[in-house]
Amino acid sequence: MRRYGPAVIALAAVAAARAACVIHRHPAPPDRAAATAAPPGTTTAPPSTPSIPAPSPPSASSMPSAGSGDAAAHRPNATGAEAPAGAPASIIPATTRELITGIVPDWSATAVTLQRWRRGDGTAGAARRWTADGEPWQGVIGTAGAAWGSGLHGIGAPDGHAGPVKREGDGKSPAGAFALRGVYGYAPAPPQGTAVPYTQVTSDWQCVDDPASRRYTQIVDRRAVTVDWTSAEAMRRRDALYTWVIDIAHNRAATSGAGSCIFFHVWHGPDAATVGCTAMPEPRLAQLIGGLDPTAVYVLLPRGEYDALTAPWGLPAGEK
């Protein structure tokens, strides 16, 4: 693995000073080091040490079951593994029962139209056609727009397609198709009905965005691991932006510098883009979490790419 010299470490230290995942219209919040302190008046008890999620989805509000190796970092199950570069058609797993689509006008746009879709699992004659679940809603993505990420669709642009490629700190949201991992938040319990793993975070929880760290891309309780990073996002912020978080499985291979800590989270408003995440109003995000299927996949694409990939990827036609 490539070793990083003082210049790169210095850059990582600079990156630590930016706001976690959000560009604000108002004065920026305290930097990441300061933001690790819990909000005044918070008396949240430290959570128990988490473990590696099991392949099968757990019951609502449960923690992942025990596994081998890294018990301090949250890792996704094996069903959403990244496809090889240039992966061919139908990259949405056959077992997927829920799809969240995000459509932007072009690569540089920051406003996204989001839509939830559902289909049967194919058993007992259940329909396999995508059906819209509710009305579309508005969200925001990275301040620099979007760029091909690493996910179910492969690494970077699919064969025959072009466009920018996501890099750490570029202010772009990863485009492509992505599995969803755990849910995190400030509250003791997730929204009612939640059927995916939920973790209540304290000021000790961080998402490591330092490419030189062996914990790169991981959400960890820093009390339970050896800290080898100089930059990380505080999962318990001093504002409401991470009240609820869904971890989007971009760069699961933890390729150095390919981007990390990509979430669904609460927005500051329709005019406040993020630095790579997809953000939306808190009530909408809570509703999304409360009904989220453990098999759900997120697809974020510019309009032209979505139209071109509708048939190959098996996406819902007629998405607005």
How do you describe this structure in short?
Helix content is 11%, strand content 23%.
What is the secondary structure topology, with strand pairs?
Layout: H1 6-15, H2 32-35, E1 73-74, E2 98-104, E3 111-118, E4 131-132, E5 137-140, E6 146-148, E7 150-151, E8 154-155, E9 173-185, E10 198-200, E11 205-208, E12 219-221, E13 232-234, E14 244-248, E15 263-266, E16 278-280, H3 282-290, E17 297-302, H4 303-313
Parallel strand pairs: 2-17, 6-9, 9-10, 15-16
Antiparallel strand pairs: 1-12, 2-3, 3-4, 3-5, 7-8, 9-14, 9-17, 11-12, 11-13, 14-15
The radius of gyration over CA amounts to 18 Å
The parts where pLDDT drops under 50 for at least 5 residues are: 1-20, 22-72, 75-88
* SSE series: HHEEEEEEEEEEEEEEEEHEH
Helices and strands: which structural class?
alpha+beta
Q: Biggest β-sheet: count, sense, barrel?
A: 11 strands, mixed
Q: How much strand content do the residues show?
A: 15-25%
What is the 3D form?
globular
Instruction: Give me the count of strands.
Output: 17
Q: Gap between N and C termini, in Å?
A: 43 Å
Helix content: 10-25%
How many structural domains are formed by the residues? 1
Description:
There is one protein chain. The model is unreliable at 1-20, 22-72 and 75-88 (pLDDT under 50). The protein is α+β, with helices and mostly antiparallel strands and 320 residues long. The protein has one domain (6-39, 50-313). Strand 2 (98-104) and strand 3 form a beta hairpin. The strands form 3 sheets. Strands 2, 3, 4, 5, 6, 9, 10, 14, 15, 16 and 17 form an 11-stranded mixed sheet that branches. The chain is 11% helix and 23% strand. It is globular, with a radius of gyration of 18 Å.
